[in-house]
Design goal:
Four Helix Bundle (Hemerythrin (Met), subunit A); elongated; mainly alpha; 5 helices
């Protein structure tokens, strides 16, 4: 199971937050000098990703990959505060990297990817999770926001329910 989780990590965040940003950065002739605060954002994003992969493996008994999803609904760790911390972590990695290297193209890639994540979650994953986990999912989305707990009062309030 650990091998499958590692393979999924390399295949998904590894490509979208590693390989593609590397290619963009290497080919961005307009890169600026960058700024060091991006390192903090990059590091935090990596920690979030590793934490979420661990929770999927240990609690969910699966991986982050659609071809080997968790068997249990993961509602521990960072999933107590956000229904999608892994996507948030990927965007943090890309945003941090864009700041570190001063790449507008990499920042634009991050925005495009964030939009794709939004549509994937709202029109795909949430519907699948609602069917798979039923009432447990319904109770969870009432308590945990989709993306970020922007304030202590936002925990417990969520966006619209999936159809």
């Amino acid at each position: 199971m650990l091998f499958r989780a590692l393979l999924a990590f390399i295949a998904l965040p590894g490509i979208f937050a590693g390989l593609i940003p590397t290619l963009i950065t290497l080919n961005d002739q307009y890169r600026g000098s960058g700024s060091w605060p991006g390192i903090v954002l990059l590091f935090c994003g990596i920690v979030i990703l590793i934490w979420c992969v661990r929770d999927f493996l240990v609690t969910g008994l699966g991986t982050l990959a659609p071809w080997d999803p968790p068997k249990n609904l993961v509602i521990i760790g960072l999933y107590r505060y956000s229904r999608n911390p892994m996507y948030v972590g990927i965007i943090m990695v890309i945003g941090g990297w864009a700041l570190c290297v001063g790449s507008l193209f990499l920042a634009m890639y991050g925005l495009l990817l964030a939009s794709a994540f939004y549509f994937r979650v709202v029109f795909g994953e949430e519907l699948i999770l609602a069917r798979k986990f039923g009432e447990q999912w319904t109770d969870y989305i009432k308590k945990v926001p989709r993306w970020l707990p922007l304030s202590p009062g936002s925990i417990g309030k969520s966006e619209r329910r999936p159809r």
